[in-house]
Amino acid sequence: MKIIEGGIAAAKGFYAAGLFTGIKNKRKDMALVYSKVPCKAAGTFTTNLVKGAPVKYDMEMVKLSPYAQAIVVNSGVANTCTGKTGMEYCRQMAEAVSTNLNIPQDSVLVASTGIIGKQLPMDKILWGIENLAPILGNSPEDGTSAAEAIMTTDTKKKEIAIEFEIGGKTVVMGGMCKGSGMIHPNMCTMLGFITTDISISKELLQEALCTNVQDTYNMISVDGDTSTNDTVLLLADGMAGNPEITERNDDYYKFLEALNYINTYFSKRIAEDGEGATSLLEVNVINADCKEQAKKLSKSIVSSNLTKAAMFGHDLNWGRILCAMGYAGANFNPDTVDLYFESNAGKIKLIENGVEASFNMELAKDIFSESEVIITADIKMGNEKATAWGCDLTYDYVKINAEYSS
Amino acid sequence: MKIIEGGIAAAKGFYAAGLFTGIKNKRKDMALVYSKVPCKAAGTFTTNLVKGAPVKYDMEMVKLSPYAQAIVVNSGVANTCTGKTGMEYCRQMAEAVSTNLNIPQDSVLVASTGIIGKQLPMDKILWGIENLAPILGNSPEDGTSAAEAIMTTDTKKKEIAIEFEIGGKTVVMGGMCKGSGMIHPNMCTMLGFITTDISISKELLQEALCTNVQDTYNMISVDGDTSTNDTVLLLADGMAGNPEITERNDDYYKFLEALNYINTYFSKRIAEDGEGATSLLEVNVINADCKEQAKKLSKSIVSSNLTKAAMFGHDLNWGRILCAMGYAGANFNPDTVDLYFESNAGKIKLIENGVEASFNMELAKDIFSESEVIITADIKMGNEKATAWGCDLTYDYVKINAEYSS
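ok -> structure tokens follow
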């Protein structure tokens, strides 16, 4: 597996573009992704009962339409809580992409992110689609331009591409995603788009995505708010020329491994770029009875406001971590827990069997002051484990969210 | 029902005192509550799997001991994650109170709040008990002194007393409580102590408390972190001389009403004095199918970091409220929701059937800028309702919690 350039436009046959259309004040706000040939498409979507119009639209398209060939995305306005008008605007976006790219309307997927409750400015959206179509390209700059256009409060663009071998052929997979608030995915994260030239059946493409988001996007939390618009879309155009994957064979697991690499990479980038965040928190719960238990405990820790605020202050208030485990809704024995802190500065055991271990306080503070901290809780019950990612809670989180729609 | 002075020491036979012993740097840090005669005792405790030693101690005492006659409380150190030593310190605290007040050791309840993971400084605790016993009193100043001594990051003491008639007798009920972080009670809140001179059976006393905390303390959230030390204790010494309440008759419901008055009062005071809070948020969900649904939805709204940050910024980002309802885990139809905002500045309908209603934006901002805001969501499904309380999320919340143990 090798990291390469190109992001969402890296895989054979894929093109991308990003543009400023005026939906937002300054930054690029629309992206278009296009495949020369029809693709198999898979998608996972928010479990929030309040779903954005684009989520409802895509859920149906991914399920019913045999192929997808383009994704159009806008940032700035989420098209959520917008009633029938919102649904009609999704259709109009797809129609405009269909006309401009000369592809079937039911092969266009749509996504929106931004403020809830406002209608899309359709004049800007339609102007954007008209002007994105002619500038589609497959250079690294084109991928980057699209990745920039889907950002909202993100401070960094998030893209990656990798190549690997399957059936003697070089396969490429690339993607882009965006955070960074209302992040507590349940099914998938905010917006993530992945393209690959692998040849695979639609069923296995969907299965791979559904399986993998459980261990990646669903294990991050920035603020505990599950968005209304969470969407991950995965397109495969088959142009790598590998023998089509139609069963769970070695090729499938190689593909799953590559998908996991990209989704884990994105999960960490989203967590560390959480609104206002200054650091990435990785939490491992090991030696659990079952995976579900390890997931609940690790996710509870990364979701705890008190732990997150303590992390921001580099304040070694470890009781908050045990407290967060205690209300996670998973059973364990507090009196047998060991807790480790680890970062570039070193590793220490902070708690042994539920009470404070003797450790070097200076070293502990140094470890907790790094921009990436790993906490490991050994609950000594079995052999299962899980990892969750989060970030610290800072003044800037409050600032960003106190002023967001103003 | 009449509000009177005296707080925890208002009811006949009850005495209280507060003292600075040096556990904390400056403020009073120990309180003692004493009843001249043995009391029936009821208690509710945290559901966190990680329970402070005093919680484990009291759970057993309330269950097994026939009477209670004193409560000793310290702030500054929680005596949690302290192993066998922590349990032994609870016993030593009870023993010292027993000796100093000449009452049975199993009639002493203990409570601690503060940092997790440190052992209690027993020299200061024992000195405190010795010096609290002689200064017990039943003036309003004594009640206030005790209420001050249990505060941690609270900015205001929380106490109240009321009197009401039962069976031709005047009954008094008073109490004190403390917040203000790690507040997301599940069974009860941080620390709440209520004393009353009513005559009632132990079974009904416990039943009344258990029932009422479901609608009061369990409906507040400051930060989503359920504490390890949540405790509410209710003592009744019977000195009012009313016919003992031994069944769910009118007298019982009058008592329940009084208890609800005090617990609702405390719930609102804890929410509005949440760490760093500048405002109180009250959320009503009305016309729900069942109470559980209304509770889940209302509690999800007051717990949403994004809603809370928007409230701090007086930012009318109502989509976050619908979003929080959507991930509450309770079923409803987003397309039929009406949403109202109300405060001293007026009342408006912000959402009608799931989409933005037409309203006066200036008035809406004025309403949202008051220090007490009521949000009502009408979900049009049935006749049940619930109320939850919370506060805004501010820079100061982060500041307080980034530096708490340093």
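The radius of gyration of chain A is 22 Å.
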